[in-house]
Design brief:
Helix 1 packs across helix 6, helix 3 packs parallel to helix 5 and helix 4 packs across helix 6. It is built from 6 helices and 10 strands; from the N terminus they run βααβαββββββαβαβα. It starts with a strand and ends in a 13-residue tail after the last helix. It is globular. It is of the alpha/beta class.
Amino acid sequence: MTVVVSGFEPFDGAGGNPSWETAARLAERGQELVGDRVVAVRLPVTFGGAWQVLDAAIRAHDPDVVVALGLAGGATRVRLERVAVNVRDARIPDNGGAQPVDVPVVAGAPVGYWSTLPLKASLAAIRAADVPVEVSSTAGTYVCNDVFYALMHHWGAGPGRRAGFVHVPGSDVVPIEDQAMAVAAVVRHALLGTPDPVLAGGTES
C-alpha cells in the first residue's frame, strides 16, 4: 500500500515548519512506523497552489491513504481535524500575497466535508503513546483548511477513501519524533480500516 503525507513550507516569516519536518520523518521511517510506503509532499502556503501540488502527488502515486499536515500556531497538542469548511478567510496574506476574505474554496460545493480517517481510534492510540492529542472541530479558514477541503471534495470523500487533516504544534511543544509517531498511528488505523470506538472527543466551547 502507499500513503501520501503532506506538509507545508515555512510561512509568516518562520524559518521552518514542523508539519513538513514531520511528513519527511514519516517518509524516512515509513516501513518501520507504518509498515508501508510513505511519500512526503511539501506544499506551498498558497491558496489553490497547495492543492495543485497535492493533487499532482495523488495522481502520480495513487495512494490508499492521504493525510495532510499543517502547523497550528499556539497549539499544545496534536489536533485531529474533524471537518473542512468551504470558506477562505485569511487573517494574513499567503506566501503568494493573496488574502481572500469570505470566499468559497470551491464555488457551489457543499458547506463542509467530514474527515474519513478513523479519528477516535487514532485518538485512543495516540493517547496510549502519551502524546498530547485532541479531536478538533475547526481547521481554521487559512491554507490548511483550504487543502483539507479541496482534498475531501476532489478525492477523499469518494467511496472507500481514507483522507483527512492533522494539525501539529510547534516542535518545541511536541517533538518531531512524537509528532511522527502520532501521525503514523492515524495512518495505520486508516490502512487497517479500524472502526471508530464510541469515545468522547468534543469540547465545551
